[in-house]
Amino acid sequence: MKKVVPFLLFVLIAHLSVAQNLNPAGFHTHRESLKNSFLKFQNEKKGRVAFLGGSITYNPGWRDSVCNYLQQRFPETEFDFIAAGIPSMGSTPAAFRFERDVLKNGPVDLLFEEAAVNDDTNSRSPEEMVRGMEGIVRHARSAKPACDIVIMHFVDPGKMDEYRSAKIPVVIQQHEKVAEHYTISTINLAKEVTERIDAGEFDWDNDFVNLHPSPFGQGVYARSIIQFLEDEFSNDFSKEKAEQHETPTPLDKFCYDAGKLIAPNPPKPIKGWEFVENWHPDNDKGTRLNYTNVPMLVGEYPGKIIKFQFKGNAVGIAVAAGPDAGIIEYSIDDQPWEKQDLFTQWSNNLYLPWYFTLESGLKNRKHTIQIRLSDEKNPESTGRKCVLRYFYFN
Protein backbone atom coordinates (compact mmCIF):
# COMPACT_ATOMS: atom_id res chain seq x y z
CA MET A 1 0.00 0.00 0.00
CA LYS A 2 2.89 2.36 0.66
CA LYS A 3 3.77 2.19 -3.03
CA VAL A 4 0.19 2.42 -4.29
CA VAL A 5 -0.95 5.50 -2.37
CA PRO A 6 1.73 7.86 -3.74
CA PHE A 7 0.94 6.58 -7.23
CA LEU A 8 -2.78 7.26 -6.77
CA LEU A 9 -1.96 10.70 -5.40
CA PHE A 10 0.19 11.39 -8.46
CA VAL A 11 -2.62 10.29 -10.79
CA LEU A 12 -5.11 12.51 -8.94
CA ILE A 13 -2.81 15.54 -9.14
CA ALA A 14 -2.17 14.90 -12.83
CA HIS A 15 -5.90 14.54 -13.43
CA LEU A 16 -6.68 17.81 -11.68
CA SER A 17 -3.94 19.69 -13.51
CA VAL A 18 -5.33 18.56 -16.85
CA ALA A 19 -8.87 19.48 -15.83
CA GLN A 20 -7.80 22.92 -14.69
CA ASN A 21 -6.26 23.61 -18.10
CA LEU A 22 -9.65 23.34 -19.79
CA ASN A 23 -10.92 26.88 -19.59
CA PRO A 24 -14.40 27.32 -21.10
CA ALA A 25 -13.10 30.41 -22.90
CA GLY A 26 -11.13 28.10 -25.17
CA PHE A 27 -14.42 26.96 -26.71
CA HIS A 28 -15.83 30.46 -27.25
CA THR A 29 -15.47 32.38 -30.50
CA HIS A 30 -15.97 36.09 -29.89
CA ARG A 31 -16.85 38.01 -33.01
CA GLU A 32 -19.09 41.08 -32.77
CA SER A 33 -19.54 42.15 -29.15
CA LEU A 34 -22.73 42.18 -27.10
CA LYS A 35 -22.39 45.93 -26.72
CA ASN A 36 -25.93 46.73 -27.83
CA SER A 37 -27.67 44.48 -25.34
CA PHE A 38 -25.30 45.53 -22.55
CA LEU A 39 -26.08 49.21 -23.12
CA LYS A 40 -29.81 48.50 -23.31
CA PHE A 41 -29.77 46.57 -20.04
CA GLN A 42 -27.42 48.98 -18.27
CA ASN A 43 -28.78 52.32 -19.41
CA GLU A 44 -32.44 51.82 -20.23
CA LYS A 45 -33.07 49.29 -17.44
CA LYS A 46 -35.17 47.14 -19.75
CA GLY A 47 -34.35 44.17 -21.92
CA ARG A 48 -35.93 41.36 -23.89
CA VAL A 49 -33.95 38.12 -24.09
CA ALA A 50 -35.11 35.12 -26.15
CA PHE A 51 -34.00 31.50 -25.94
CA LEU A 52 -34.70 29.63 -29.18
CA GLY A 53 -34.02 25.94 -29.67
CA GLY A 54 -35.20 22.40 -29.01
CA SER A 55 -35.77 20.30 -25.92
CA ILE A 56 -32.40 21.19 -24.35
CA THR A 57 -33.53 24.81 -24.29
CA TYR A 58 -37.12 23.91 -23.38
CA ASN A 59 -36.11 21.82 -20.36
CA PRO A 60 -35.17 23.44 -17.04
CA GLY A 61 -31.46 24.05 -16.62
CA TRP A 62 -29.00 26.29 -18.42
CA ARG A 63 -31.68 28.74 -19.55
CA ASP A 64 -32.86 29.34 -15.97
CA SER A 65 -29.27 29.82 -14.83
CA VAL A 66 -28.60 32.38 -17.56
CA CYS A 67 -31.79 34.26 -16.65
CA ASN A 68 -30.70 34.34 -13.00
CA TYR A 69 -27.23 35.52 -13.99
CA LEU A 70 -28.59 38.36 -16.13
CA GLN A 71 -30.97 39.48 -13.40
CA GLN A 72 -28.12 39.51 -10.87
CA ARG A 73 -25.71 41.19 -13.30
CA PHE A 74 -28.26 43.93 -14.03
CA PRO A 75 -30.32 44.07 -10.80
CA GLU A 76 -32.24 47.22 -11.74
CA THR A 77 -33.24 45.95 -15.18
CA GLU A 78 -36.74 44.75 -15.97
CA PHE A 79 -36.31 41.69 -18.17
CA ASP A 80 -38.76 39.98 -20.49
CA PHE A 81 -37.43 36.45 -20.92
CA ILE A 82 -38.90 34.59 -23.91
CA ALA A 83 -38.69 30.79 -23.58
CA ALA A 84 -39.02 29.64 -27.20
CA GLY A 85 -37.57 26.15 -26.99
CA ILE A 86 -39.78 23.38 -28.40
CA PRO A 87 -38.67 19.73 -28.24
CA SER A 88 -37.49 18.14 -31.50
CA MET A 89 -37.32 21.41 -33.43
CA GLY A 90 -34.21 22.69 -35.18
CA SER A 91 -33.40 25.68 -37.34
CA THR A 92 -35.98 25.14 -40.11
CA PRO A 93 -38.99 25.10 -37.76
CA ALA A 94 -37.44 27.95 -35.77
CA ALA A 95 -37.14 30.13 -38.87
CA PHE A 96 -40.83 29.67 -39.69
CA ARG A 97 -42.15 29.99 -36.12
CA PHE A 98 -39.89 32.94 -35.30
CA GLU A 99 -42.61 35.57 -35.65
CA ARG A 100 -45.03 33.64 -33.46
CA ASP A 101 -42.71 32.40 -30.73
CA VAL A 102 -39.82 34.87 -30.51
CA LEU A 103 -41.27 38.21 -31.61
CA LYS A 104 -44.61 37.77 -29.87
CA ASN A 105 -43.86 40.60 -27.40
CA GLY A 106 -41.82 42.71 -29.82
CA PRO A 107 -38.22 42.86 -31.07
CA VAL A 108 -35.52 41.10 -29.07
CA ASP A 109 -32.34 42.65 -27.64
CA LEU A 110 -30.40 39.41 -27.10
CA LEU A 111 -31.10 36.07 -28.78
CA PHE A 112 -29.64 32.70 -27.76
CA GLU A 113 -30.06 30.11 -30.52
CA GLU A 114 -29.21 26.39 -30.68
CA ALA A 115 -30.07 23.84 -33.35
CA ALA A 116 -26.98 21.67 -33.85
CA VAL A 117 -28.48 18.59 -32.18
CA ASN A 118 -31.88 18.61 -33.89
CA ASP A 119 -30.65 19.71 -37.31
CA ASP A 120 -28.37 16.68 -37.24
CA THR A 121 -30.61 14.05 -35.63
CA ASN A 122 -33.57 15.18 -37.78
CA SER A 123 -31.43 14.63 -40.90
CA ARG A 124 -31.69 18.15 -42.25
CA SER A 125 -29.51 18.63 -45.32
CA PRO A 126 -26.45 20.91 -45.17
CA GLU A 127 -28.36 23.32 -47.40
CA GLU A 128 -31.30 23.41 -44.98
CA MET A 129 -28.95 23.92 -42.03
CA VAL A 130 -27.76 27.17 -43.61
CA ARG A 131 -31.16 28.28 -44.86
CA GLY A 132 -32.75 27.76 -41.46
CA MET A 133 -30.02 29.37 -39.35
CA GLU A 134 -29.54 32.27 -41.75
CA GLY A 135 -33.29 32.80 -41.81
CA ILE A 136 -33.33 33.10 -38.01
CA VAL A 137 -30.50 35.63 -38.00
CA ARG A 138 -31.95 37.79 -40.75
CA HIS A 139 -35.46 37.67 -39.28
CA ALA A 140 -34.17 38.75 -35.86
CA ARG A 141 -32.22 41.64 -37.32
CA SER A 142 -34.95 42.74 -39.70
CA ALA A 143 -37.13 43.17 -36.60
CA LYS A 144 -34.31 44.93 -34.73
CA PRO A 145 -31.01 45.65 -36.52
CA ALA A 146 -29.25 46.13 -33.16
CA CYS A 147 -30.21 42.65 -31.91
CA ASP A 148 -27.25 40.75 -30.44
CA ILE A 149 -27.15 37.01 -31.15
CA VAL A 150 -25.25 34.08 -29.64
CA ILE A 151 -25.25 30.69 -31.41
CA MET A 152 -24.51 27.59 -29.35
CA HIS A 153 -23.57 24.09 -30.50
CA PHE A 154 -24.81 21.46 -28.04
CA VAL A 155 -23.42 17.94 -27.77
CA ASP A 156 -24.60 14.46 -28.73
CA PRO A 157 -22.71 11.15 -29.09
CA GLY A 158 -22.30 11.54 -32.85
CA LYS A 159 -20.55 14.87 -32.45
CA MET A 160 -18.21 13.45 -29.83
CA ASP A 161 -17.27 10.61 -32.18
CA GLU A 162 -16.52 13.06 -34.97
CA TYR A 163 -14.36 15.30 -32.80
CA ARG A 164 -12.46 12.24 -31.58
CA SER A 165 -11.82 11.37 -35.23
CA ALA A 166 -10.44 14.88 -35.82
CA LYS A 167 -13.53 15.87 -37.82
CA ILE A 168 -15.79 18.88 -37.41
CA PRO A 169 -19.48 17.87 -37.50
CA VAL A 170 -21.17 19.06 -40.68
CA VAL A 171 -23.95 20.84 -38.81
CA ILE A 172 -21.42 22.84 -36.81
CA GLN A 173 -19.55 23.73 -39.99
CA GLN A 174 -22.78 24.98 -41.57
CA HIS A 175 -23.90 26.99 -38.55
CA GLU A 176 -20.41 28.46 -38.22
CA LYS A 177 -20.60 29.62 -41.85
CA VAL A 178 -23.65 31.65 -40.92
CA ALA A 179 -22.10 32.93 -37.70
CA GLU A 180 -18.92 34.04 -39.45
CA HIS A 181 -20.83 35.70 -42.29
CA TYR A 182 -22.82 37.79 -39.80
CA THR A 183 -19.94 38.15 -37.27
CA ILE A 184 -21.97 36.35 -34.59
CA SER A 185 -20.23 34.84 -31.57
CA THR A 186 -20.52 31.10 -30.95
CA ILE A 187 -20.11 28.73 -28.00
CA ASN A 188 -19.01 25.22 -28.94
CA LEU A 189 -20.34 23.13 -26.08
CA ALA A 190 -20.15 19.96 -28.17
CA LYS A 191 -16.38 20.24 -28.34
CA GLU A 192 -16.07 21.44 -24.75
CA VAL A 193 -18.01 18.51 -23.30
CA THR A 194 -16.05 16.05 -25.46
CA GLU A 195 -12.70 17.39 -24.33
CA ARG A 196 -13.73 17.59 -20.68
CA ILE A 197 -14.83 13.94 -20.76
CA ASP A 198 -11.60 12.94 -22.49
CA ALA A 199 -9.64 14.86 -19.85
CA GLY A 200 -11.32 12.78 -17.15
CA GLU A 201 -13.35 15.57 -15.54
CA PHE A 202 -16.56 13.52 -15.75
CA ASP A 203 -18.09 10.81 -17.91
CA TRP A 204 -21.02 10.65 -20.29
CA ASP A 205 -23.06 7.74 -18.92
CA ASN A 206 -22.95 8.55 -15.21
CA ASP A 207 -22.63 12.33 -15.17
CA PHE A 208 -23.85 14.00 -18.36
CA VAL A 209 -26.23 11.04 -19.03
CA ASN A 210 -27.35 11.77 -22.62
CA LEU A 211 -27.99 14.53 -25.16
CA HIS A 212 -30.75 15.74 -22.83
CA PRO A 213 -28.33 16.66 -20.06
CA SER A 214 -28.74 15.73 -16.43
CA PRO A 215 -28.80 18.65 -13.96
CA PHE A 216 -25.03 18.21 -13.82
CA GLY A 217 -24.80 18.48 -17.62
CA GLN A 218 -27.08 21.50 -17.68
CA GLY A 219 -24.70 23.02 -15.15
CA VAL A 220 -21.75 22.43 -17.48
CA TYR A 221 -23.62 24.32 -20.19
CA ALA A 222 -24.63 27.11 -17.83
CA ARG A 223 -21.12 27.70 -16.47
CA SER A 224 -19.64 28.00 -19.95
CA ILE A 225 -22.37 30.31 -21.25
CA ILE A 226 -22.21 32.52 -18.16
CA GLN A 227 -18.43 32.81 -18.45
CA PHE A 228 -18.89 33.83 -22.09
CA LEU A 229 -21.36 36.52 -21.01
CA GLU A 230 -19.14 37.70 -18.18
CA ASP A 231 -16.20 38.04 -20.58
CA GLU A 232 -18.38 40.02 -22.98
CA PHE A 233 -19.89 42.28 -20.33
CA SER A 234 -16.48 42.96 -18.78
CA ASN A 235 -15.59 45.14 -21.76
CA ASP A 236 -15.67 48.89 -21.21
CA PHE A 237 -18.70 50.13 -23.13
CA SER A 238 -19.08 53.33 -21.07
CA LYS A 239 -18.21 55.62 -23.99
CA GLU A 240 -19.90 53.50 -26.63
CA LYS A 241 -23.26 53.86 -28.33
CA ALA A 242 -25.54 51.14 -29.61
CA GLU A 243 -25.18 50.52 -33.33
CA GLN A 244 -27.05 48.57 -35.93
CA HIS A 245 -25.39 45.35 -37.02
CA GLU A 246 -24.48 45.20 -40.67
CA THR A 247 -26.61 42.81 -42.69
CA PRO A 248 -24.60 41.45 -45.61
CA THR A 249 -26.09 39.83 -48.68
CA PRO A 250 -27.42 36.35 -47.87
CA LEU A 251 -25.19 33.31 -48.08
CA ASP A 252 -28.17 31.57 -49.65
CA LYS A 253 -30.72 33.73 -51.46
CA PHE A 254 -33.36 31.12 -50.60
CA CYS A 255 -32.76 31.31 -46.84
CA TYR A 256 -35.91 31.30 -44.71
CA ASP A 257 -35.74 34.94 -43.63
CA ALA A 258 -39.40 35.69 -44.29
CA GLY A 259 -40.81 32.49 -42.83
CA LYS A 260 -44.36 32.48 -41.53
CA LEU A 261 -46.93 30.00 -40.26
CA ILE A 262 -50.49 29.94 -41.59
CA ALA A 263 -53.14 27.94 -39.76
CA PRO A 264 -55.37 26.01 -42.20
CA ASN A 265 -58.87 27.38 -41.79
CA PRO A 266 -60.75 26.74 -45.02
CA PRO A 267 -63.72 29.08 -45.65
CA LYS A 268 -65.91 26.12 -46.58
CA PRO A 269 -65.78 22.35 -46.01
CA ILE A 270 -63.36 20.35 -48.16
CA LYS A 271 -64.59 16.95 -49.25
CA GLY A 272 -62.52 14.22 -47.60
CA TRP A 273 -60.90 16.60 -45.09
CA GLU A 274 -62.27 17.65 -41.71
CA PHE A 275 -61.48 20.85 -39.86
CA VAL A 276 -61.37 19.83 -36.17
CA GLU A 277 -61.58 22.76 -33.74
CA ASN A 278 -60.09 20.90 -30.78
CA TRP A 279 -58.13 17.94 -32.12
CA HIS A 280 -56.62 15.30 -29.88
CA PRO A 281 -55.57 11.71 -30.63
CA ASP A 282 -58.01 8.89 -30.01
CA ASN A 283 -55.32 6.76 -28.36
CA ASP A 284 -52.83 7.02 -25.50
CA LYS A 285 -49.81 8.05 -27.57
CA GLY A 286 -47.76 11.06 -26.53
CA THR A 287 -48.38 14.59 -27.74
CA ARG A 288 -46.57 17.91 -27.64
CA LEU A 289 -47.65 21.39 -26.59
CA ASN A 290 -49.53 23.27 -29.32
CA TYR A 291 -50.18 20.03 -31.21
CA THR A 292 -53.11 18.72 -29.21
CA ASN A 293 -56.40 20.37 -28.20
CA VAL A 294 -55.87 22.85 -31.04
CA PRO A 295 -57.46 23.35 -34.48
CA MET A 296 -56.27 20.83 -37.09
CA LEU A 297 -57.16 20.04 -40.68
CA VAL A 298 -57.36 16.24 -40.82
CA GLY A 299 -57.37 14.11 -43.93
CA GLU A 300 -57.51 10.32 -44.15
CA TYR A 301 -59.26 9.57 -47.44
CA PRO A 302 -56.92 8.98 -50.40
CA GLY A 303 -57.41 11.12 -53.46
CA LYS A 304 -59.27 14.01 -51.81
CA ILE A 305 -57.46 17.24 -52.68
CA ILE A 306 -56.89 20.42 -50.70
CA LYS A 307 -55.62 23.43 -52.62
CA PHE A 308 -53.99 26.60 -51.27
CA GLN A 309 -52.33 29.61 -52.82
CA PHE A 310 -49.24 31.24 -51.39
CA LYS A 311 -46.63 33.80 -52.34
CA GLY A 312 -42.96 33.04 -51.73
CA ASN A 313 -40.06 30.76 -52.61
CA ALA A 314 -40.71 27.86 -50.21
CA VAL A 315 -43.67 25.93 -48.86
CA GLY A 316 -44.17 23.18 -46.33
CA ILE A 317 -46.55 21.67 -43.81
CA ALA A 318 -46.27 21.22 -40.05
CA VAL A 319 -48.09 18.09 -38.92
CA ALA A 320 -48.65 15.89 -35.89
CA ALA A 321 -46.82 12.84 -37.23
CA GLY A 322 -48.20 10.01 -35.12
CA PRO A 323 -48.55 6.22 -35.41
CA ASP A 324 -51.28 6.57 -38.05
CA ALA A 325 -49.38 9.05 -40.26
CA GLY A 326 -49.90 8.51 -43.96
CA ILE A 327 -48.15 9.40 -47.19
CA ILE A 328 -49.19 12.56 -49.01
CA GLU A 329 -48.87 13.47 -52.65
CA TYR A 330 -48.44 17.10 -53.62
CA SER A 331 -48.18 19.22 -56.74
CA ILE A 332 -47.06 22.83 -57.07
CA ASP A 333 -48.30 24.87 -60.02
CA ASP A 334 -49.65 21.73 -61.72
CA GLN A 335 -46.23 20.11 -61.86
CA PRO A 336 -45.99 16.29 -61.59
CA TRP A 337 -47.17 14.89 -58.27
CA GLU A 338 -44.52 14.02 -55.68
CA LYS A 339 -44.75 11.95 -52.49
CA GLN A 340 -43.86 12.65 -48.87
CA ASP A 341 -44.07 10.02 -46.13
CA LEU A 342 -45.28 11.69 -42.93
CA PHE A 343 -44.29 8.77 -40.69
CA THR A 344 -41.05 9.43 -38.76
CA GLN A 345 -38.76 7.15 -36.78
CA TRP A 346 -40.42 8.46 -33.59
CA SER A 347 -44.04 8.23 -34.77
CA ASN A 348 -44.84 4.85 -33.21
CA ASN A 349 -45.20 6.35 -29.74
CA LEU A 350 -45.65 10.07 -30.28
CA TYR A 351 -47.66 12.55 -32.33
CA LEU A 352 -44.48 14.40 -33.15
CA PRO A 353 -44.63 17.99 -34.44
CA TRP A 354 -42.77 17.75 -37.74
CA TYR A 355 -42.00 20.32 -40.41
CA PHE A 356 -41.87 18.94 -43.94
CA THR A 357 -40.49 21.43 -46.45
CA LEU A 358 -42.17 20.30 -49.64
CA GLU A 359 -40.46 22.73 -51.99
CA SER A 360 -37.88 25.50 -51.77
CA GLY A 361 -35.87 27.53 -54.25
CA LEU A 362 -39.03 28.58 -56.10
CA LYS A 363 -39.44 31.90 -57.87
CA ASN A 364 -40.69 34.46 -55.37
CA ARG A 365 -44.22 34.87 -56.72
CA LYS A 366 -47.70 33.43 -56.31
CA HIS A 367 -47.98 29.64 -56.41
CA THR A 368 -50.68 27.02 -55.92
CA ILE A 369 -50.11 23.83 -53.96
CA GLN A 370 -52.39 20.79 -54.06
CA ILE A 371 -52.19 18.01 -51.47
CA ARG A 372 -53.91 14.63 -51.33
CA LEU A 373 -53.51 11.40 -49.36
CA SER A 374 -51.92 8.47 -51.13
CA ASP A 375 -53.29 4.92 -51.24
CA GLU A 376 -49.86 3.80 -50.07
CA LYS A 377 -48.71 3.84 -46.47
CA ASN A 378 -45.58 3.25 -44.47
CA PRO A 379 -45.40 -0.43 -43.39
CA GLU A 380 -45.01 0.69 -39.76
CA SER A 381 -47.98 3.07 -39.83
CA THR A 382 -51.42 2.05 -38.60
CA GLY A 383 -53.25 4.45 -40.92
CA ARG A 384 -53.18 7.02 -43.70
CA LYS A 385 -53.78 10.29 -41.84
CA CYS A 386 -52.50 13.79 -42.35
CA VAL A 387 -53.05 15.88 -39.19
CA LEU A 388 -52.14 19.34 -40.43
CA ARG A 389 -51.38 22.13 -37.94
CA TYR A 390 -49.83 24.75 -40.22
CA PHE A 391 -48.85 25.57 -43.73
CA TYR A 392 -45.60 27.46 -43.79
CA PHE A 393 -44.27 29.78 -46.47
CA ASN A 394 -41.20 31.91 -47.04
TrEMBL record:
Per UniProt, residues of the SGNH hydrolase-type esterase domain are: 51-218
Q: Where are the transmembrane segments?
A: none
Q: Which InterPro entries match?
A: Ester_Hydrolysis_Enzymes (IPR051532), SGNH_hydro (IPR013830), SGNH_hydro_sf (IPR036514)
Q: What is this protein called?
A: GDSL-type esterase/lipase family protein
Q: Where is the signal peptide?
A: 1-19
- Give the keywords, sorted: Signal
Recorded GO molecular functions are: phosphatidylcholine lysophospholipase activity
